[in-house]
Structure formats: structure tokens, C-alpha cells
Amino acid sequence: MNPNTISDEVKNSINELPASPPPEQEGIRELLEQLQRRIESDENLPPENEVEALNQLQALVLAAKNAGIEENRSMAFSALQRLKGLVKEAPKAHNFKEACENILPQISTVFGLEPTFRI
Hints:
Layout: H1 3-16, H2 28-41, H3 47-64, H4 70-89, H5 94-110
Helix pairs in contact: 1-2, 1-3, 2-3, 2-5, 3-4, 4-5
């Protein structure tokens, strides 16, 4: 799939999530938006890895629509693990790696997962 096509789909899905109540505090929507921007802006992330990262981001968006359901927690866990693996597959994608190191632990706590995503 074309990175631009999946990017538009992910952006539209993220926009369907409610904004976080207190504007000064980042919620899942804002974290996912940040991650999407970082994925798309990393010129060292190979196109096939970018598509896969966006697919995993889309899985996180779907899981975030009802984060309390166990099945969605499992989906989020799998997507977070795959994103972590993508960092190792694209060692030159420093922007992507930094985003994952900073944002994935925060996303994991939204789903009630341990924020142990050291890369």
C-alpha cells in the first residue's frame, strides 16, 4: 500500500478519537498524532517500514476507540511490539527511534500495559 494512502487513513481515524479533556495534558489522540508525524517525517525510514509502522499505528487507533476491552489491549500490545521491532529493522531511522522511545511508553500506559518499551 502507498504510504500516502495509509497516512490519510490513519489521520482520519485519529481525528475520530475524542480530544483529551484537559488541553495541557496529552491523551491518546495527541500521542498517536505525534507518532504519525514522526513516522512520516523520518527520511531514513524505508518506505516498506513506514507503511508497516503506519499499519501498526492504525491498529493502535482502532484499539484506542475502546481501550478497556481486553481484546483491544492485546491488539495494542501486538502493535507496540511490532513498532519496537521496526526500530531494530531500521537502525538509521533516528527520528522514528526517538519517537518510539518517548511515545510508546506513554501509549502503553493508556492501555494499562507496562511501559517497558526500552529499545
